[in-house]
Amino acid sequence: MSEKKNNSLWIHCPLCGNKTRAKVYRDTVLINFPLYCPKYKKEFQVNVVQLKMTLSNEPDA
């Protein structure tokens, strides 16, 4: 169980840096994931691959 704990992270808001309600593991792949920040009540589209998060450049439709 401790091995799985080390391979997971909470996703943090790209604006304020606070922890969100989404958790990812090393093998999780998210493309254009709608990440919601409860503090700012704002949604961001993010990509997560191998525990590295980047903002998506996709325009809102």
Can you describe what's shown?
With 61 residues, this protein is mainly beta. It has one helix at 2-6, and strands spanning 8-12, 19-25, 29-37, 42-49, 52-55. The strands form 2 sheets. A 3-stranded antiparallel beta sheet has the order 3-4-5, with no helix packed on it. A two-stranded antiparallel sheet has the order 1-2. A hairpin with a 6-residue loop joins strand 1 and strand 2 (19-25). The radius of gyration is 12 Å and the shape is globular.
What is the fold's blueprint, element by element?
Elements: H1 2-6, E1 8-12, E2 19-25, E3 29-37, E4 42-49, E5 52-55
Name its key features.
61 residues; mainly beta; 1 helix; globular; 3-stranded antiparallel β-sheet; two-stranded antiparallel sheet
Strand content: over 45%
H/E series, N to C?
Answer: HEEEEE
Mean pLDDT, to the nearest integer, reads 87
| β-strand number | 5
Distance between the termini: 41 Å
Number of helices: 1
Reading side by side through the largest sheet, how are the strands ordered?
3-4-5
Q: Give the helix proportion (percent range).
A: under 10%
Structural class: mainly beta
Q: Can you tell me the residue ranges where pLDDT is under 50 for at least 5 consecutive residues?
A: none
Label the overall shape: globular
Instruction: Tell me the Rg in angstroms.
Output: 12 Å
